Each structure stands twice: as structure tokens, then as C-alpha cells.
């Protein structure tokens, strides 16, 4: 098997390294808008560097991993699908809902194989939480609380094309709410604050946000996120039922301190970022893609699953902007 990896920045390099370690992934062909960067990574991994992205398709590969800048995702996914190639794409698939729908319709028409990158589905704690909810161990689930907090804002250049806090960051929380509970969101109410660094006000974005989601069985979920959590990288999910409650993401590296006299000690080495926190999950995600390409496993996150999370993020953005609850039926769907 030969896999083409397009994009050799931070996440692309991580994916390429994970594939290079995988015994069934075969050889790698790396490409980037900066050919020199791809060549340096290829030298480190014992892979082949292509002089341009075009060569990934003309030189021949069995599958494609798209990990370049967001504005290139849609075109490369369609290029792969039109060539009959299975493709893994980092979220988001496209920069807006309309383009996402158009791409997914073409993927479906071509009977293409597309896996989207929602790595928390492969996190051990999240998977255990899902099993407990689905088994009934918590009883009737009544409340879900999620938190995603970055230790510091990304660069302004990234923020300008990120799609905003809901689409870029909290979309993972929205995916977890659906995936863990097995229920759909019917209505959202969201608000946000840009009281922090001025770059957020300049871009019309927010640095902190909260969304209240109503699920189709009456469960209520609150999803909070911020770009300004100086204590460290914090991703948690709490699930409360009539019989019990559990939390994923709560360990000795969670960057939160108790004010109780006999509470647990503060984290000695808080998580610094998403690659460190979710490294094993990213590896498992790529391993699932290899199995998918080899015909040995199902698609763990297809286009429809990714679309569902994006639609929630879009509804939250409408809610924040218009200061009102938004029903999910107001947004277009496939």
C-alpha cells in the first residue's frame, strides 16, 4: 500500500509519522505547498517527497490523507474521490456549510470513501464513557457537560481562516455529545464573549463561548470553550444520569486545582496541547483508516457524521449572532 499525505505542517507531520510506524501502512508519498518542508519530513521518515501536490495523484497512490490548510480540503477530497481513492481528511471538510454539503453530495454520488478526522472518538476515556452510557450503567442520562480550553490563542493568521470557536474548536464537543449519547440535537442556544485579546474582536470571533444543546430525548448538554486557559489544555466531558455520573478527561494532568482542604493536588505536569493530550487517539484514528483502506474495518466517521457536528456549530453561530434559540430544522441538510 502507498499512501499520499498532503500537508506536512504540524498535524500532517504527526499523521505521516504515525503512518510510517504502522506495519500495514506501506510506503508514504509526502507533498506540501512548501516542497522543501515535505522533503525534510520525508528524509526523517524514510518516505518519498513529491515536488508538488499534483504528483501525489499522477505518481500513483492507494489512498490519500489530507492535512493541509483548511481552504484546500474540499478540492483535494474531490480530486481523490474522482480518482477512486479512499481519503482521510482533517476537519473541517470545507469552510462553510453550503460547500460542505456540495462536497458530500459529490462524494455520495461517486460512492466515495471518506473518513473525517474526529480523533476524540478514539480516546480511551471517551470510548469508556460511551460504553457506560449505552449500557445503561448511568441510568437515564439527564445532563452532559463538556469543556474544551486552549492554553493560549492560536496565531492570528490561523484564527482568520478557522471558522470561529464553534466550528473550529467546539465542533469536537458537539461530535462527542452525539457519539457518546446516541441522540441528536434538536435546538441550541449559544453566546460568546470577546473580552480577551483584541484579535478576536477584530475578526468578529469570540475567545470564550457557551452553548446549551437540547437533545431529542430531553437530555440537556452544556458545551463551554475558551482560547485563554493559562493553566493548560483542558478537555473534559461529564455525564450525569439518575444512577451515576462519570467524567472523561479527568486525570493527574488535568489543569485544574481544588480549593477543598482535602482535595486532590494540582496537576504536576498539565497537558500543553491537543497533540500531546490526544496523541494515542490520533494514532488509533489513522490505524482505523488503514483498516478501512484494506477492507478490514468500517468507516468510523463518515461525511454524514462530520456534517452533523458542523450543523450544530453553524446553529450555534446563528444563535450567537441573532441572540435567539435555533432549531436544527432551520439549517440545510443532505
From TrEMBL:
Keywords: Oxidoreductase. GO terms for molecular function: nucleotide binding; oxidoreductase activity. SUPFAM superfamilies: Glyceraldehyde-3-phosphate dehydrogenase-like, C-terminal domain, NAD(P)-binding Rossmann-fold domains. Residues 246-273 are annotated as: Disordered. Residues 127-242 form the GFO/IDH/MocA-like oxidoreductase domain. Residues 1-118 form the Gfo/Idh/MocA-like oxidoreductase N-terminal domain. The keyword Iron does not apply. Pfam families: GFO_IDH_MocA (PF01408), GFO_IDH_MocA_C3 (PF22725). InterPro entries: Gfo/Idh/MocA-like_OxRdtase_N, GFO_IDH_MocA-like_dom, NAD(P)-bd_dom_sf. Belongs to the Gfo/Idh/MocA family. This is Dehydrogenase.
Amino acid at each position: 500500500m502507498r499512501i499520499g499525505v498532503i500537508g506536512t505542517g504540524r498535524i500532517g507531520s504527526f499523521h505521516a509519522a504515525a503512518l510510517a510506524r504502522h506495519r500495514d501502512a506501506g510506503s508514504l508519498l509526502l507533498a506540501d505547498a512548501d516542497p522543501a518542508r515535505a522533503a525534510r519530513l520525508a528524509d526523517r521518515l524514510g518516505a518519498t517527497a513529491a515536488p508538488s501536490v499534483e504528483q501525489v495523484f499522477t505518481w500513483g497512490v492507494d489512498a490519500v490523507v489530507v492535512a493541509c490548510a483548511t481552504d484546500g480540503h474540499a478540492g483535494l477530497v474531490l480530486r481523490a474521490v474522482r480518482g477512486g481513492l479512499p481519503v482521510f481528511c482533517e476537519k473541517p471538510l470545507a469552510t462553510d456549510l453550503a460547500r460542505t454539503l456540495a462536497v458530500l453530495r459529490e462524494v455520495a454520488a461517486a460512492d466515495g470513501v471518506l473518513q473525517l478526522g474526529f480523533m476524540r472518538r478514539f480516546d480511551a476515556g471517551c470510548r469508556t464513557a460511551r460504553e457506560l452510557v449505552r449500557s445503561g450503567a448511568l441510568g437515564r442520562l439527564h445532563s452532559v457537560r463538556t469543556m474544551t480550553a486552549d492554553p493560549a490563542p492560536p496565531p492570528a493568521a490561523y484564527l482568520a481562516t478557522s471558522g470561529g470557536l464553534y466550528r473550529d474548536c467546539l465542533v469536537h464537543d458537539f461530535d462527542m455529545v452525539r457519539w457518546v449519547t446516541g441522540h441528536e440535537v434538536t435546538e441550541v442556544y449559544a453566546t460568546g464573549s470577546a473580552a480577551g485579546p483584541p484579535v478576536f474582536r477584530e475578526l468578529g470571533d469570540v475567545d470564550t463561548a457557551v452553548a446549551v444543546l437540547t437533545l431529542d430525548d430531553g437530555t440537556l448538554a452544556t458545551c463551554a470553550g475558551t482560547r485563554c486557559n493559562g493553566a493548560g489544555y483542558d478537555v473534559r466531558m461529564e455525564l450525569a444520569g439518575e444512577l451515576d455520573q462519570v467524567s472523561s478527561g479527568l486525570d493527574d494532568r488535568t489543569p485544574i486545582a481544588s480549593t477543598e482542604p482535602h482535595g486532590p493536588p494540582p496537576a504536576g505536569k498539565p497537558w500543553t496541547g491537543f497533540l500531546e493530550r490526544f496523541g494515542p487517539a490520533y494514532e488509533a484514528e489513522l490505524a482505523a483508516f488503514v483498516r478501512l483502506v484494506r477492507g478490514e474495518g468500517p468507516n468510523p466517521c463518515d461525511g454524514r457524521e462530520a456534517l452533523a457536528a458542523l450543523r450544530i456549530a453553524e446553529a450555534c453561530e446563528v444563535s450567537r449572532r441573532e441572540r435567539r434559540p435555533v432549531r436544527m430544522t432551520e439549517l440545510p441538510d443532505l
